Amino acid sequence: MIELLPLAAVPPVAIESLLDAAFGTDRHGRTAYKLRAGVDAIPGLSLIAVEDGELVGSIQCWPIQLTEADGDTTPLILVGPVAVRPDRQRDGIGRQLMDAMIERADATDHEPLVLIGDPEYYGRFFGFDDRVTGGWALPGPVERRRLLARVRSGPGLPQEAVMGPRVPAPALVENR
């Protein structure tokens, strides 16, 4: 039986080992890694899947943002990687992780979710699509059809902006 737990329930080295097995040790150069550089995963949305005491999957979510030409920013949540141990892929573990993360996100007034992934899979099962992402610039290459967003009702997203890690607003300093 699969048990879903917070990401912090296992040491970071265990997550890194899982990611190496699922995606290869050369994964750090991918665009998604540049998007989340310097930020920590969101604890309430980042989960692991454990079966019989063994780590079999994980999902991580990251605070990122869109920055428009005028400097306005829109917060987003980058979903991924969704990793499943290679010998357990196609067992529905990734889908369980996605469902649990979306349920947690939807229980709050969360930012729009974005990911880089297979549109046929993420669209069909989770409501992600590329309708709003066509004018977004990224810090590396991406297959445009794979840049997907899941937007709940509310204000629209900018049509043109640059994606990057979410950075805190600069502190206001009083001159005395």
Approximately how much helix is present in the residues?
10-25%
What is the total number of structural domains? 1
Content-based structural category: alpha+beta
Oligomer description: single chain
Give the H and E element order: EHHEEEHEHEEE
Low-confidence stretches: none
**What portion of the residues fall into strands of 2 or more residues?**
25-35%
- Count of DSSP-assigned helices: 4
Domain N-acetyltransferase: 2-149
Protein name: N-acetyltransferase
InterPro entries: Acyl_CoA_acyltransferase, GNAT_dom
GO molecular function: acyltransferase activity, transferring groups other than amino-acyl groups
Could you characterize the architecture of this molecule?
GO terms for molecular function: acyltransferase activity, transferring groups other than amino-acyl groups. The chain is globular and about 50 Å long. 30% of the residues are buried. The chain has a single domain, classed as Aminopeptidase (3-Layer(aba) Sandwich). Strands 1, 2, 3, 4, 5, 6, 7 and 8 form an eight-stranded mixed β-sheet that branches. It is built from four helices and eight strands; from the N terminus they run βααβββαβαβββ. It is α+β, with helices and mostly antiparallel strands. The mean pLDDT is 92. Helices cover 22% and strands 29% of the residues.
